[in-house]
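Self-study notes.
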Amino acid sequence: MEKIKTIIVDDHSIIRDGIKRILVSDINIKVVADFKNGQELLDFLETTIDVDVILMDISMPVLNGVDTTKIIKTKYKHIKVLALTMHDETTYILSMFNARANGYVLKESGAEELIKAIYTVVEGNNYFTNDVSSKIINSLVNETKNIGKKVLSIREIEIIRLVADGLKNNQIAEKLCLSARTVESHRRNILTRLNLKNTAEMINYAIKEGIVN
C-alpha cells in the first residue's frame, strides 16, 4: 500500500508534535509537512499537490481552518480535509461541514480513532465522531426552525469572545493577525447582522447563545 501523505495544520507546535508521534506509529501514514496556519498550507500547495489528507485545526491566526478548507475543496478537490479540533460546538461543526470537510474529529479522541478517520476519508467516505454526527443530524432535522436565524462566522465568534474578554480593537487585531480597521469592520457587521446597538448587547447575546460563559 502506498503511504498516505498527510499534512498537519495547527497553530500550536506542541499539538503538531503530538499528532506526528501518533501518526508515525502507523507504517502506512507519512507526515510530509506541518504548518501553523492556513496561509502557510496554501503557499505550500502552490508548489506541490501530492497530498492525500490534511488534518485541519479551526481557530488559527492569519487564515482559519474553515476558510482554508473552502479554498482547498475548490482548488484541490482530490485532497481530503479532516477537521481535528477541540471545538465541539454545533456552529463550528456546521461551518466545517458546509465547507465540505470530509470529516470531523475532536482532539480528545484517541489515537486509534484518529488513524481510523484518516483511513476512512482516504477510502472516499466521510468520518464524523458519534457526538459530531448527532449534532449535524439534529441541526438538519431542526433546520426549518432556524430559517432566518443569524449565523456568525468563525472569525466573528473569535472576535466576540475576545471582546467579552475585555480586549480592545488593537489587541484583538494583534492576536488574530488582522488590522485594527478590519476588527472594527467585523464588530460593526456583527452588530448590524444581529440587530444590536452596542458592545454590551453583543456580549449579552454571546452569553445567551453560549458563545461565551
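Second protein, same conventions, sequence then structure:
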Amino acid sequence: MLRNPHFAILLVLLALVVSACQPISAQPAQAAPPAAEWLTESVVIDGVGPSTAVDPEQAAAEDEFRTVALAREQAYYDEDYEKYISFYADDVISLEPGTPEIVGKETVAANIKGFWEAYDTVGELTLKRIWVSGNYGTRYAEWEEVVTPADGGKPIHQIGRCFVVWEKIDGEWKIVSSLLHFIEEPTEME
C-alpha cells in the first residue's frame, strides 16, 4: 500500500499524460487566428455531457464532479478569485510549462492574482474527459486562448492540454495536482 495517496494519483496522471500527449513536432502547424476573428468572450464547453454510467451512484458521482470541474473553469475565465481559489486543496502541486513546481494553495493564489493583473485572457476550454473513482476524480481538457498583456504588449496565442486531479476532502472536491502542457509553443500575434 502506498503511504501517500497523492503520489499514486500523480502516477496515474503521468500515465494518462504519456498516453494522451503527442510530441509537439507531431502536431500540424497552426497559424494564430487574426485578433479580429478571435472570440470576444471566453467559453467553457462541456464536451463530456451527463454520465452514461449504468450504476446510479457512479452516474451521480460523475455528474457532480463534472459540474464542479466546469464551475472551476468558468471561475477562471470570470476571474472570480475567491471562487477559483476555493477549488484548491491546501497542499496542491501544480506543474506548468517553463516554471518551477507550484506548491500550496497560497502560492497558486498569488500566481493567479498576478497573472490576472498582468494579462487579459479570452479563450475556449473544452472539457474532454472525466474519471471518477471513489473520492478521486481527474479531468482532461484542451484550451485555446489569447492572452494580452495589460500593459499593451502584443497578444499571445496559446493552445494546450491539461489534467487536473481532484480529491473529495471533507465532502468537497478539491484540486490536489495539475499538469499543463502546450501543444505548440505560444506565439505572439500581430
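Instructor comment on the second fold: Helices lie at 5-20, 56-78, 81-86, 105-118.
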